[in-house]
Design a protein that fits this description.
Largest sheet: none
Order of helices and strands: HHHH
Oligomer: single chain
Distance between the termini: 124 Å
Radius of gyration: 51 Å
Length: 168
């Protein structure tokens, strides 16, 4: 069995190289024609030159890819170290905040503001408290008599004097 991934990569590289050669040869033919020479006469030489130039370009591209891969390999450990340091710092911060939360929770006491009742310590006291009869209910106060609205006195207005309005 052959490795299909390797064959695919090789085929892709060959196709790219062929395309580069064809585009270079087309450019060379065009350049020779614009100079006024007969490109058909030196066509074989132009094809050889385009293959040679394509090989050179492919080598440059491959060396560039290798250099980039090496730089990535060099940078990757540094990045992983920095990430690990940041993770450690975050863990420390989380632990500190958890500890602070625990301290605050330990100091805090629950407060019930709506109902304040003494805690009953034992079951016996609970039984005694339940067994006691309920104390007499307080007498309800008698309602106060309400004054009727007719009993109110309305203030009397004094009529304006006629002499006051003429003076101004």
């Amino acid at each position: 069995m052959k490795n299909s991934k390797g064959d695919d990569k090789k085929a892709a590289k060959k196709a790219a190289k062929k395309e580069l050669e064809q585009s270079l040869s087309a450019k060379f033919f065009e350049a020779v024609k614009t100079l006024g020479h007969d490109a058909e006469q030196i066509g074989e030489d132009l094809i050889l030159v385009s293959k040679f130039v394509a090989k050179k370009i492919a080598k440059k591209i491959n060396s560039g890819k290798q250099a980039a891969a090496e730089k990535v390999k060099e940078v990757t450990p540094e990045v992983t170290k920095k990430v690990a340091e940041v993770k450690r710092e975050v863990k420390k911060d989380v632990k500190k905040t958890e500890a602070a939360i625990k301290k605050v929770a330990a100091k805090a006491t629950p407060v019930i503001s709506s109902v304040k009742v003494e805690a009953i310590a034992t079951e016996e006291k609970v039984a005694k408290a339940i067994a006691k009869p309920v104390a007499a209910v307080r007498k309800v106060a008698k309602p106060m008599p309400v004054a009727s609205p007719a009993a109110r006195k309305t203030p009397v207005r004094k009529p304006k004097a006629a002499s006051d309005s003429n003076k101004s």
